[in-house]
């Protein structure tokens, strides 16, 4: 039996969904990532210069257990598929817009919800739904603003995280945002405001002791530490790139009226 297949069977929640073939973990990088110190600073500091902590409610025991298992699976398989957490029987086509020319998801075919028994779908859906209030209304759930996050695994720290990107498609404006972002930007109601744009990234992390935290990152801050400052910046888009933080495992999508769903790498 393949060693990684055996390991996943041991750590994953019970499921009637069969495991698909697992790609070699050799495909995933175990080398240092540019954002290793960025992650370590979030894990070790209660008040990093570049981020503000957002309180998280205590999760039910079953959710805590499954988050721990999910972290382990993501770290050990990295860019391979934690398929036993997902319900293949409920796959669906993620919607497209502008007469099919705007594709929000990275895949043109199916996205997959979490198995209900894991409670992880509800957990991440709740985070999506609460971010607008946590950001004092700076963010809304919409296809122009917040609708997705990127799951990554950082082998150096043992942490797994999700980078939520808001303000994804600001409206084009000749004075404030003179950038054409393609079909998905058409009819955008998101106004570019620099002080809000620089805080467009929310990062959720579960550390190597299975403790969770949520942070709103200010990409416009300069800390004086080049290892951290190289991750920040990026004016005017201010994007925190998940690939700089670890191996990218999956994308999470959520819009009102749809199930929270996952697209695997």
UniProtKB/TrEMBL annotation:
Domain of life (superkingdom): Eukaryota
Residues in the signal sequence: 1-16
Keywords on record: Signal
UniProt protein name: Uncharacterized protein
Species in which this protein is naturally found: Arthrobotrys oligospora (strain ATCC 24927 / CBS 115.81 / DSM 1491)
